[in-house]
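To assess whether ligand presence alters the predicted conformation, the chain was also submitted together with zinc ion. Input:
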Amino acid sequence: MPDIKIKRELLMILLELGKSSHPSEFLALLIKNGDTIDEFELAPGTITGSSSARYQPDMMPLGTGISGSAHSHPSGAIRPSDADLRFFPAVGKYHIIIGAPYTEDDWRCFFADGSPCSVEVID
Ligand SMILES: [Zn+2]
C-alpha cells in the first residue's frame, strides 16, 4: 500500500513549475482530498529570489486541507535539507521535493521527519 496518492496531472504541473522557476526554487502547499493529493496553492509568502524559496510563516495563514508541501531543488539533490526538516512539520505530513532537470523521475516524497514516503501516481 502506498502512503499517499497524487494525481498525475498535479504532479506534472509541479514538475513544470520547477522547470519554469529554475534556477530559483518554487514552493507550493499541497491539499489532500480523501487519500489523494489533488490540489495545490502557491505559497503567497514565497521569496522567489535566487537563493531559496524559504517559507515565511507569519505571511501565510494555513488554510484547511493543507497536508504538506512541494518545492524544488535547482541543485538536483532530491533530499531534504536541514532547513527543510525544520520547515516540514509546520506545514503537514507529506513533502515532495523536485530536483533539476525536473523530469518524471526527478522527485521524491518525504514525511515531515525526512523519512521516505511511498506515493502512487494516479490518473
Ligand atoms: Zn529543500
